[in-house]
Amino acid sequence: MYREHVLAGQVALVTGSSRGIGLAISRLLGEMGAKVSTCARDQSALEESASKLRGSGIKVLATQADVTHEDQVCYLVRKTQQTLGPIDILVNNAGIGIFGSFLDQSQADWDAILNTNLKAVFLVSRAVAPEMIRRQTGHIINISSLAGKNTFANGAIYCASKWGLMGLTGCMAEELRAHGVRVSAVCPGSVATEFSGQGAKDPSKMLQPDDVAHAVAALATQTPGSFISEVQMRPTRKP
């Protein structure tokens, strides 16, 4: 699909990368030659996934980090730069979902979702972007959702976080494009992962993590003179 070493020498930081979409993205970018920095809150799951990637010949730095906390973000970015080199590709993938009527949800639910799905993107991007600006190159790819374009019952806080992420992505893109840094959003529909969704669906009719990884790879290998600002993804058959 992609030339094996097309990203050789580049460094990719993928947040929320111990499983699901983040792991699939890390694997594909690594297979394309990138050195990959992975992170997650769960140390054991992170180490297990990193071991699998290394078994495939991918150079991996695995760092336990909660990207909703600025000090941990700074440590993650600094460790990545010192160990692997300047970050060429940032994939803001970490995300959670808590679904149900907004009448039944709590302030703690609001804080957890907004902090992970929106604030973390702000914190990590702000930590990575200055070096990209200095080097006049880089990709920031935010994994959003079709829930950032549409609304549905029982998705109020999740939709709010993803609509906010789309706004943040667009503003970042406008600020950074003059510096050679491209900022894009990938908006998948339902993906067959362990992510808590809206109920039972047929996994065979859902997007797969590798589908999202393919979109990220396409964004990371764009031609120099343009950039794709948004990718919307849907399964061929409705779940």
Task: Outline the structure in words.
There is one protein chain. The chain is an alpha/beta fold and 239 residues long. It has one domain: 3-Layer(aba) Sandwich (Rossmann fold). It is 42% helix and 15% strand. Helix 1 packs across helix 6 and helix 3 runs parallel beside helix 4.
Describe, in short, the structure shown.
The chain has helices spanning 20-31, 43-55, 70-83, 107-135, 156-176, 209-220; strands spanning 11-14, 35-40, 60-64, 89-92, 138-143, 181-188, 230-233. By secondary structure, it is of the alpha/beta class.
Low-confidence segments, given as residue ranges, are none
Determine the oligomeric state from the structure. Answer: single chain
Portion in helices: 40-55%
Strand order of the largest sheet: 3-2-1-4-5-6-7
Any idea what the radius of gyration is? 17 Å
Number of domains: 1
Tell me the fraction of residues in β-strands, as a range: 15-25%
Which architecture does the CATH hierarchy give at level 2?
3-Layer(aba) Sandwich
CATH superfamily: NAD(P)-binding Rossmann-like Domain
**CATH fold annotation:** Rossmann fold
Shape: globular
Distance between the termini: 26 Å
